[in-house]
């Protein structure tokens, strides 16, 4: 039996280029777009708790908000983080960005200044031979009403053309900037919009307009990435936003799907059911000639219903670390291709870190405590073997137990156990957005303010693509 990922990881890079390259990356979450659960100290000010970046800046005022966020932008991610990401065997970073970093109107309480840090991060990525995906995490009016978009409330993006025009302006700016020679082709993907949940016809119209903007950079090595909107990858097969009647996939396109297991109704699944669904999802993307676009799992974590209520830090809980390791390797195997011609092209874990390094959401903490392999590019560091039945899934019957560690490790920020949110689950935002399963189901965090029933219904719709 092969270790999870197997020898294929080394062979894949030999033939794969552009949109088909194998990606093993992390999100730089909670940085240029803030989410309260990821950096709670910023959002709790003098006894007041703010639920979004909009609310924070509106409450603090622009001058105070700018000084607060400039300090955050300059310290939360640094060159040393990018160096550590490379040392962990990762080869790519996904950077969430809000529209207001580029297109900010006077009446909006946001502050700008993020762009120089985005530019610096891309140059660091170039230095350490990492690729970059930039995604529009927050669009004007909000595409889903969740805190990850900068504002909590209604879904107002599709209500007027101005919101579309402003987003296209941001995409044009990013496309023109990151094709410049100074970045050395580090940016390989620009994602049109993160986790939209509005009417499909309007979304497809926006995707066509967005693809027209970004596609001018295809010859420069930048692919157009779009989110599956929780319809699941098979419903987007044979899709070309630039020619909706083509009946085949467009070129230089990648599809982003997010897979989470921590939120209703999936938080009630048993361990065998979770692992079974992960395996089934991965197998679906490994089939040949399906018409499914090259697909990246752009967000996933180690949070499940089995860890969401845990108040024990992973450093003090051997069983928790053992489960995390199995869950990590199961998803790594499922989301990574094991042969040529497959739709699967890799993944981005959410996230590299949080302020207090919540164990289920912090890749760096997982490496420190041994429930994530020390070098994801080296299969010899994996614990679980792959089955011989051709599914590409881990062998769950393999007996592995996390080694004891003397004490919980502390990251540069703080011990995860020192904060009440370090319970293995997010409260809302990107990580708690609706997530799909192999069966097409979706789930939403109750804190997101969006009806789970609505998103589940959307996920089961048959798209006319």
UniProtKB/TrEMBL annotation:
Keywords on record: Cell wall biogenesis/degradation, Glycosidase, Hydrolase, Signal
GO MF annotations, alphabetized: beta-glucosidase activity
Ranges for domain Glycoside hydrolase family: 66-198
Keyword Hydrolase: yes
Biological processes annotated in GO: cell wall organization; glucan catabolic process
Family, similarity comment: Belongs to the glycosyl hydrolase 5 (cellulase A) family.
Protein name (database record): Glycoside hydrolase family 5 domain-containing protein
Source species taxonomy: Eukaryota, Fungi, Dikarya, Ascomycota, Pezizomycotina
């Amino acid at each position: 039996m092969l270790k999870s990922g197997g020898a294929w990881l080394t062979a894949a890079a030999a033939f794969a280029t552009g949109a088909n390259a194998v990606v093993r990356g992390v999100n730089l979450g909670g940085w240029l777009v803030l989410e309260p659960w990821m950096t709670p100290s910023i959002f709790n000010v003098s006894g007041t708790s703010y639920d979004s970046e909009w609310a924070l800046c509106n409450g603090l005022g622009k001058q105070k908000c700018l000084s607060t966020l400039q300090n955050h932008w300059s310290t939360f991610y640094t060159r040393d983080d990018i160096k550590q990401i490379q040392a962990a065997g990762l080869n790519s970073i996904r950077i969430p960005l809000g529209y207001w970093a580029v297109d900010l109107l006077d009446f909006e309480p946001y502050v700008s200044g993020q762009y120089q840090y985005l530019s610096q991060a891309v140059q660091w990525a170039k230095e350490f031979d990492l690729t970059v995906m930039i995604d529009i995490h927050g669009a004007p009016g909000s595409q889903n009403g969740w805190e990850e978009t900068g504002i909590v409330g209604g879904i107002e993006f599709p209500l007027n053309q101005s919101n579309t025009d402003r987003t296209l302006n941001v995409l044009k700016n990013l496309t023109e900037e990151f094709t410049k020679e100074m970045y050395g082709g580090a940016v390989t993907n620009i994602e049109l919009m993160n986790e939209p949940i509005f009417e499909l016809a309007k979304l497809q119209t926006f995707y066509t307009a967005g693809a027209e903007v970004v596609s001018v950079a295809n010859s420069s090595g930048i692919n157009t990435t779009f989110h599956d909107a929780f319809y699941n990858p098979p419903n987007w097969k044979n899709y070309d936003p630039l020619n909706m009647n083509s009946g085949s996939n467009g070129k230089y396109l990648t599809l982003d799907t997010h897979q989470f297991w921590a939120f209703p109704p999936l938080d009630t699944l048993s361990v065998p059911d979770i692992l079974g669904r992960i395996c089934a999802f991965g197998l679906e993307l490994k089939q040949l000639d399906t018409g499914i676009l090259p697909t990246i799992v752009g967000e996933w974590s180690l949070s499940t219903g089995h860890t969401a209520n845990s108040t024990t830090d992973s450093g003090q809980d051997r069983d928790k670390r053992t489960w995390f390791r199995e869950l990590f390797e199961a998803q790594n195997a499922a989301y990574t291709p094991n042969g040529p011609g497959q739709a699967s092209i890799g993944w981005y874990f959410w996230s590299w870190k949080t302020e207090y390094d919540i164990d289920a959401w912090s890749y760096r903490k997982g490496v420190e405590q041994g429930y994530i392999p020390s070098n994801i590019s080296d299969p010899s560091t994996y614990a679980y073997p792959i089955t011989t039945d051709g599914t590409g899934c881990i062998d769950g019957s393999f007996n592995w137990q996390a080694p004891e560690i003397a004490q919980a490790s502390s990251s540069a920020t703080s011990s995860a156990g020192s904060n009440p949110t370090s319970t293995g689950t997010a409260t809302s935002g990107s990580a708690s957005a609706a997530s799909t399963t192999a069966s097409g189901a979706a789930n939403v965090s109750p804190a997101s303010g969006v009806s789970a029933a609505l998103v589940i219904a959307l996920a089961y719709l048959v798209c006319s693509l």
